[in-house]
């Protein structure tokens, strides 16, 4: 049914207990995911974490070792790729070089003998603002324009689910940002379900309603971009999505909704509601832009955490803000972003400073967070997530 009809709107996608084992390698450890119809969902993670494998499973290009895939409530696990209501835009967009832009976009429709294929193709080209180049060949377009044609070619089929695997990877930064906004507005206009894969955290946060951060074949955390950024639940998420200062600490009390913990540079407080670990050894995290620098010791204030004095070892002007690295005895390097404003102190390398933040801006992670953060900063994951099982269910065709 699905492959012949056009979707009026998006469909839910459900991954239920998915596991994918390649010979000798577990690419997806355990994946449970529900993407509601009509949403723009981003799967974000470092190279090798299993993003493309996830898309290929949904598209039917790989078979799961275990688990079920449902689209619009129907189990499609055993359905052939071309029978699934899914279109994929791969990073290499592979347009037919000998066909015009219009024929490229109309190709799928014509093959399925859809009425008014050319009319629909023009409509899709208008959506990506390229109808004026409909008669050109792909080679006569820029890379970014070709990418938009690939998008039109996918959208024109009105798949209930559109899979995008780093579709903007070939574009330079400026065009990339522009296309991110366009893609988002196209999704809003057509109302389909988009599953967008990227390793660019800014891209995921700009475009998606919901972001899932993936690490070694598992989803670490899922939520709105704001939720993930403001309240990371693991060291990996805290370091992969933006930057975080992470301080090892020992809890000294937990009362009245406030967890108080001793760091090597003094006692700090975190709201209990913002902490995943509330006893024993924990990690206190705070984003660099939440920190304030002062040249004199701030007055004691129960709602502010203060560390210092420390010394500025680096001050880098980046235009909109200045990035400071402050070395605090016992703690180490703390990163601070200060917005550039007309009024406001400017510090130079060597200056003595105190670092402070409102207690409600911090978050509490478990003791392993700092080590997890280090893996996020390394980027590439080339070590296996888990030893692959060999056995009768070890391989899918
Ligand atoms: N056919 C295969 N056989 C064995 N291992 C595979 C196969 N396909 C992928 N893998 C491995 O599975 C892991 C996940 O690969 P995948 O392509 O899903 O990563 P990714 O998250 O898309 O990374 P990138 O951001 O680099 O595209 C990688 O370690 C990869 O080497
Ligand atoms: Mg990939």
CATH topology of the largest domain: Rossmann fold
CATH superfamily name of the largest domain? P-loop containing nucleotide triphosphate hydrolases
How many E-type strands?
20
Strand content: 25-35%
Largest beta sheet: what is the strand line-up?
6-7-8-3-9-10
Indicate the percent of residues in helices: 10-25%
What does the model show?
With 397 residues, this protein is of the alpha+beta class. It has two domains: 13-228, Rossmann fold (3-Layer(aba) Sandwich); 231-378, RNA polymerase II/Efflux pump adaptor protein, barrel-sandwich hybrid domain (OB fold (Dihydrolipoamide Acetyltransferase, E2P), Beta Barrel). The chain has helices at 51-59, 101-111, 117-127, 143-155, 173-190, 201-207, 225-230, 235-240, 369-378, and strands at residues 13-22, 25-35, 40-44, 66-71, 74-75, 86-89, 161-165, 193-198, 210-215, 218-223, 245-255, 258-263, 266-271, 281-286, 292-294, 304-317, 321-328, 332-339, 352-358, 363-366. The strands form four sheets. Strands 6-7-8-3-9-10 form a six-stranded mixed β-sheet, with helices on both faces. Strands 13-12-11-14-20 form a five-stranded antiparallel β-sheet, with no helix packed on it. Strands 15-19-16-17-18 form a five-stranded antiparallel β-sheet, with no helix packed on it. Strand 12 (258-263) and strand 13 form a beta hairpin. Helix 2 (101-111) crosses helix 3, helix 2 (101-111) runs parallel beside helix 4 and helix 3 (117-127) crosses helix 4. The protein is elongated, with a radius of gyration of 25 Å. The two termini are 25 Å apart. Residues 1-5 and 380-397 have low confidence and may be disordered. Residues 51-52 line the site of magnesium ion (MG).
